[in-house]
Amino acid sequence: MMPALCFRMDGLISYALKTEEQRSMYFTAILITVVNCCLSFVTTFIYRYVTLAFGSTISRYYKYFGYVSCVVGHFILAVAVAFLFKLWLIPVNEYPVDELPEKTENLFCYHPEGLKLALVKYCLLTCYAGVILAIVLFAGLSVRELRTKRHHLERNTLNMQKEVLNSLLIITGIALLFGGVPVFVYTFYITHSKLPLALEVASATTLIALNYGTIYVVLVLFLFRSYRKVLCNIVGSFKNIFVNVNHPSSSITRAIHAVA
């Protein structure tokens, strides 16, 4: 609802979320998912580098330490995002009236200026920038580690590590291009909602980010044979179910022949 720093909750979900706090919580949950998705890419490259550089060292520790550290990291990040957006929330009836749209039904708003806006803005932008820097750093370290140890690894192991790392670099690059950059630009323009063409830019970046999932799935299926195989098995299973439902006599006949 720019230039007002407000969002309208439409669709079926609007019937379930009756209050501003509920709508804000739903919006915050989406943002927590986005931020945790960014963190998951970082942890993937950290794991790849650590296993390459310190494989013999970490093998002595229990595996659940890694799982626990990831869970704790995601939990802390989720709590931080929830706290920031709860702090940023402002009741619609306290929002400057001259900037509000005529219809305020299903709206929820955030502070359009001041310290709270600056805090959320710089935290989010710093988070996104930190994710990009961390991915570039650990991806570079992983490539360097592979080159350093290329004479100490078996040929098959080296080729497998290269293939995995190359695939990770490709899908992460696509994620940054179609997911990270649009979200970064969207966050900037949302927190600077009075800039020229802010609404148009925010709408365009939202459209790109919404299609990121489809592009990512297609790319993953293209890169990883095991995923394609699983998908083919699922499609084959549904095909068999469809055939059995539409031609029950043939399935019964096959069952009789199998018993005989």
UniProtKB/TrEMBL annotation:
Keyword flag Membrane: yes
Organism: Steinernema glaseri
Residue ranges crossing the lipid bilayer per the database entry: 25-50, 62-85, 119-143, 164-189, 201-224
Keywords: Membrane, Transmembrane, Transmembrane helix
A Pfam family the protein falls into: 7TM_GPCR_Srh
InterPro entries from the UniProt entry: 7TM_GPCR_serpentine_rcpt_Srh
Protein name: G_PROTEIN_RECEP_F1_2 domain-containing protein
